[in-house]
Amino acid sequence: MPGRLLRADNLQDLSSADVTRLVDDLEVRTIIDLRSPAEVTAEGPGPLTRIPQLVHRHHSLLPEAGHATDASADALLVRQRRAAERYPGDRMSSFYLGYLEDRPDSVLAALRSITNSPGSAVVHCAAGKDRTGVVVALALTIAGVSRETVIDEYAVTGERIEAIMARLRASPTYAEDVDRRPASDHKPQPETMAAFLTQLDERHGGVFGWLDTHNFGEPEIEKLRSRLRG
User: Contact 158/52 with Cβ under 8 angstroms?
Assistant: First the structure.
């Protein structure tokens, strides 16, 4: 059903009208934050942390090491090297595969947080396209959304990417890191999500094969599907 699952970038700069829209109009009750602990600490409490009816769940998709954001120099160097080894065909798709391989615990926890939300859920990271894009792609697939629509939903962030990057550059947490990555990395491409899903098919038997391997079974799949479809 529309509004059950929302995808967002950094939520630090929400206005009071934005908060009202999310909490009162869309009935958001769970915030699923995929940023690293270092990012959360550096950015500080956002306006939604002051809303008592909201539950905040933190499920970092990055290895718990160093003081890295998703694009910091030390983390990016390691991830680039591993990406070249994992899947040289598409670097961003390789990063996405890395989320599933390095932090399956957090991916599964994020899906369970969506499932168990008493109202609508917001999933977010910094830009709302990579870490968030992967979790939402899995959730939509579980809900029965077609692959074509999953890819289109991921790519639509490109329509707002300039504004998103401008906000991140205004943050001391992200400003330097954002410019370390090639400009082409910032705009989501349909081919990237398509390649990720194809590699997931070939390596893990698709979304449902990966879930089964990690003990996210049919009862949880049905519960999440019902949660999103109503």
Answer: no
- Residue recorded with tokens 């956002």: 46
Is residue 2 within 8 A of residue 89, CB to CB? The reply is no
Cβ contact 68:38 at 8 Å? yes
Name the pTM for this structure. Answer: 0.92
Per-residue pLDDT tens digits for 59-76: 999 876 555 555 454 555
Cβ-based neighbours of 152, under 8 Å, separated by 6 or more: 190
Only one residue has tokens 């950015």, namely: 43
Distance CA 160, CA 152 (A): 14
Burial 112-142 (b: 16+ CB within 10 A, else e): bbbbebeebbbbbbbbbbbbbbbbbbbbbbb
Length of the chain in residues, anyone? 230
Which CATH number is 5-225 given? 3.90.190.10
For 212, counting Cβ atoms within 10 Å of its Cβ (0-12 exposed, 13-18 middle, 19+ buried), the class is middle
